[in-house]
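Per your request, structure below.
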């Protein structure tokens, strides 16, 4: 676990008001601590002291909370930005930058289906992609005017957490809605997933954390959700 203290001492190269997100990026041979802000991207060794990579954002691209989501995939670390997607490959150089319209907030990935990446924006629009040397847009799931700050992919299912406290489960290939969960009284801050056991964790601004068991009905093929104590 990593926590951010916005009141105590802080790294002088990153102002407290600039900090967007802090995440672990787990790679097969290395674990990195990734800090993102509207000034740029910083990567540290797991001890939190040794900086191994720095990328500054253009001043024209900078806005609070630009960098939101990090993800490790093999030797790669993918970051979702408002101005597009950076794909950073070790040893820490930008291989290519995919610019997509709109503001990309969360990014989720999966290796168990053709649609292996989903992005979202402040309108709640979800875009489903097949990654590779070129990113191919497969499906667009319309938003409904509510931000989607967190998404996850599991067995071809998109779990999307929204600013109204709801979690929606969609079929990635078609965009069909399986389940709508009134999960929290306030906005959802983050979703996380244990793919091996089909457990989804949601955290909200109401200070609650909930765990949900996901399963696929053998009769209908639809996803079923049950809360765990």
């Amino acid at each position: 676990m990593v926590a951010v203290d916005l009141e105590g001492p802080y790294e002088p190269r990153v102002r407290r008001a600039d900090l967007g997100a802090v995440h672990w990026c787990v790679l097969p041979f290395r674990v990195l601590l990734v800090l993102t802000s509207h000034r740029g991207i910083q990567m540290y060794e797991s001890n939190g002291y040794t900086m191994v990579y720095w990328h500054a954002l253009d001043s024209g691209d900078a806005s609070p909370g630009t960098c939101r989501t990090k993800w490790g995939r093999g030797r790669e670390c993918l970051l979702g930005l408002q101005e597009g997607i950076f794909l950073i490959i070790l040893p820490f150089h930008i291989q290519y930058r995919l610019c997509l319209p709109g503001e990309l907030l969360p990014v989720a990935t999966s290796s168990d289906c053709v649609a292996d990446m989903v992005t979202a924006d402040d309108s709640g629009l979800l875009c489903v992609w097949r990654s590779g040397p070129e990113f191919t847009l497969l499906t667009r799931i319309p938003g409904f005017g509510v931000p989607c700050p967190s998404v996850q992919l599991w067995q071809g299912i998109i779990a999307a957490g929204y600013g109204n406290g709801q979690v929606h489960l969609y079929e990635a290939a078609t965009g069909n809605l399986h389940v709508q969960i009134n999960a929290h009284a306030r906005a959802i801050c983050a979703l996380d997933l244990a793919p091996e056991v089909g457990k989804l964790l949601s955290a909200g601004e109401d200070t609650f954390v909930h765990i949900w068991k996901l399963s696929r009905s053998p009769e209908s093929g639809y996803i079923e959700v049950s809360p765990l104590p």
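The chain is about 0% helix and 50% strand.

Regards,
D.
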